[in-house]
Specification:
The chain is mainly alpha-helical and 237 residues long. The protein has ten helices and no strands. It is 80% helix and 0% strand. Belongs to the BI1 family.
């Protein structure tokens, strides 16, 4: 979809619209639930030496790395034909797969630094979400630059999986923090615009499915900011 051709929420929605408020609450509730699933799975897996060995000492590692990508593509292609409950189930499967992948952070970083970086990420994410929700500026003008940036860091990250270059990882981490922080504000505004165009009621099936897929977008922004900040400021064991 070309979101830049949508009507914008600033000119259409009343600020206190009940449907919009219900819809945005649903987006962040879905995202928070997905983050909780990720945290629980990561903690459980990291506490089991057998599970960690089975994942990270075998070729199963590659499945763990790329399975979330496959799930996100599946949701993007099929979201309109899914029921709301199926969409939520897929979101939780995605977040569980991410939990498997992120379980390794508990081996490399201290628990205190993980909590501290998570708190910093929450503040940054919350501030940009508030900005994206309240600003009158049309952020779609920077969408192309954001997507090019995302594509660039994905390619660089895949290449660095094999190079294992510390300097490249540092640059990627800095870029990720910048790109996904700005992307958070853009996505929140985009989700409001999608509600204007498709979600006639915050409780309608269309609005709820948009809320689930929107939660996936915001979840990915949060995780990328968190991982990047952890690489930059986390205390290694």
């Amino acid at each position: 979809m070309d979101y830049t051709k949508f009507k914008t929420s600033a000119g259409v929605m009343a600020q206190g619209d009940t449907g919009l408020r219900s819809y945005m609450v649903s987006v962040f509730r879905n995202m928070s639930s997905a983050l909780a699933v990720t945290a629980v799975v990561a903690l459980l897996v990291s506490s089991s030496a057998a599970l960690m060995s089975a994942i990270f000492d075998t070729k199963l590692l590659w499945l763990v790395i790329f399975a979330p990508l496959g799930m996100s593509i599946y949701m993007g292609v099929n979201i309109t034909s899914m029921s709301v409950s199926t969409a939520r189930f897929c979101l939780y499967i995605y977040s569980a797969l991410m939990g498997l992948s992120l379980s390794s952070v508990f081996l490399y970083y201290t628990g205190e630094s993980i909590v501290r970086v998570f708190a910093i990420t929450s503040v940054v994410f919350g501030a940009m979400s508030l900005y994206g929700s309240s600003t009158k500026r049309d952020l779609s003008s920077i969408a192309s630059f954001l997507y090019m940036g995302v594509f660039g860091v994905i390619v660089a990250s895949l290449v660095n999986l094999f190079l294992q270059n510390g300097s490249v990882e540092f640059v990627i981490s800095v870029l990720c923090v910048i790109i996904f922080t700005v992307m958070t504000a853009y996505d929140v505004q985009r989700l409001k615009d999608m509600y204007v165009n498709f979600g006639d009621s915050g409780e309608s099936d269309v609005a709820q499915k948009i809320a689930v897929y929107g939660a996936l977008s915001l979840y990915m922004n949060f995780i990328n900011i968190f991982i990047s900040l952890l690489r930059l400021f986390g205390e290694r064991k």
